[in-house]
Amino acid sequence: VTGVQTCALPIYQAVRMNNYKGKYIKKVDALNSPLYKTHILIGVDITSYDFVKDYDTFVKLLTEPHNISGYYEYIDGQAKSHLFIDMDLHSMDLPLEKVEEYIVILNDTVQHLIDKPITPIVLEANSDKKFSYHIIYRIADGNKQLLFDGVLAMKDFIKTVINSVKDPIVGDFLNKCIDPSVYRKNGGLFRTIYSSKKGENRPFVFSKLSKSTDPLLTFVCNTSKEFTLYRPVQPVAVPQTEQPEPNVGRLTDREKQSIKKFVHKYYKYKENTITDIIIDNNCIVVGLLDKHCFFIDREHKSNHQYILIDTTGSRDRKSTRLNSSHTNYLV
Prior knowledge:
By secondary structure, this protein is of the alpha+beta class. Helices cover 24% and strands 26% of the residues. The strands form four sheets. Strands 4, 5, 6, 7, 8, 10 and 11 form a seven-stranded mixed β-sheet that branches. A four-stranded antiparallel β-sheet has the order 2-1-3-9. Strands 12-13-16-17 form a four-stranded antiparallel β-sheet, with helices on one face. Mean pLDDT is 82; it is low at 1-18 and 319-331.
């Protein structure tokens, strides 16, 4: 494999031909092993775990001629690692050309939000029944790598990506196809390049959409010691010109008392027949208990009367039914 150092694997080469199984059945046993601090934890067919010395060794293992097991990279949910995405859909849901078009839009959206040089590594494991994609984003921040501080930070970012897609059809597609369950805080497995699920012949290979075909770049946790962490960009608050709030209902008790006296003097309604007084723009609205309408000369069944006083000088009495046709001015 181009760009991969040659590593001797006497143990693995012997056992792989015999359908190799990992040394550890339980994840907790593997995590408690002293090797966890110095080696790379891998999954074998999701049924067992083992360790490899480094990523070059892992690639060598994956490219053996007699590779008949499915291998998985273990991703520590708390670890600082590269952004990755898992996508699955039935091949009947959308033509392959359309799926690839939508992945390009996805990558462009990630690029727009990160605003740094990005190399998307796109892997595909497609068949006539199912399309599967793994995308690993190698992001440069100057001469350092830009990493995410755990999988939960990635999960939040992916939500932002989906919501940022302008085309609602593409956004809905991504929302349905991107699997959020891979972002496990307690750690999980991520199928590697050249590996197939047990009982299937559908290994991940490089897609034509991938910007690199170096297997070493496909590992989410293959990171450099020189890195920076992604920080969500906080939206900048745009200074707003302070607008006065509409003057609705802001009357003091003294002002209300003056209006009640005015209504009693000019409209002959006593204070105890007034239900409420509010200001609506340039008008004073005085609610009444009275249901008798002088315009039709009869009692309304439910509509009460109100007096509308225009502060520019005119006064008006109306029914509380706003679409009423009898809204003639009294003065």
